Amino acid sequence: MLGDIIIAEPNAYIAFAGKRVIEQTLNKTVPEGSQAAEYLFQKGLFDLIVPRNPLKSVLSELLKLHAFFPLDQK
Question: Is residue 55 within 8 Å of residue 8, measured between CB atoms?
Fold first, then answer.
């Protein structure tokens, strides 16, 4: 993943393919929960895990910090 800030939702399933497909292709077992957002957050893939309801305000704050739009609305 390429980006300055990567955000995921809680309990999101992050994978390029399903567990069964990966196991059949690689002939290896995939640990349970290894494709969950929380597990991948602990491994450093994401910067934030934010529920959908406060996401708009979190994105607004991040955009203000990165000066995509002025802090003053005047």
Answer: no
Would you tell me how many other CB atoms lie within 10 Å of the CB of residue 46? Answer: 19
Determine which helix (DSSP H) or strand (DSSP E) holds 19, and give its type and residue range: helix 19-26
Q: How far apart are CA 64 and CA 58, in angstroms?
A: 10
Asked if residue 44 lies in contact with residue 72, where contact means CB atoms within 8 angstroms, the answer is: no
pLDDT tens figures, 23-46: 999 999 988 888 899 999 999 988
Three-state SS for 30? coil
d(CA 66, CA 46): 18
As a whole number of angstroms, the distance between CA 74 and CA 70 comes to 9
